[in-house]
């Protein structure tokens, strides 16, 4: 049998504090972060596309994203009205571009106007498409903040998310 002798009450408090600290550390190390997000998706009756709404940009606003069925991306129109202080295009040959599995020739200088979201030079581009109806489109890859949920409770908040700009 294991017994402890404490000569003063301060030793008892030290023991209890140490015991609680070890339990907290043990609990924190066993927390599992989610690896999957479940988004509410609706079908737009006018376009017949599947849409989800995600909080995006800085300041955070609700934005409609097109869900690319059969693909690994969310698409958003950034050609008009995109305003965010945290927007950054993904550069060619960057880790983010490799992660998106962009082809090595998917980088270029396609923008002939002043740089803006969806139109930047030396940026990573991907080819998204629907092989069933044989349509494909190029898109600039970018990063920005996003949140799923709404105030007062934001279920998921991420400082960087990569998405395709059309």
From TrEMBL:
GO BP annotation list: proteolysis
Keywords: Membrane, Transmembrane, Transmembrane helix
Database matches in Gene3D superfamilies: Acid Proteases
Gene Ontology MF: a single term: aspartic-type endopeptidase activity
InterPro entries for the chain: Aspartic_peptidase_A1 (IPR001461), Peptidase_aspartic_dom_sf (IPR021109), TAXi_N (IPR032861)
Superkingdom, natural source: Eukaryota
Limits of the Xylanase inhibitor N-terminal domain: 50-153
Ranges annotated as spanning the membrane: 12-39
Family under the similarity heading: Belongs to the peptidase A1 family.
Protein name: Xyloglucan specific endoglucanase inhibitor
Organism whose genome encodes this protein: Solanum tuberosum
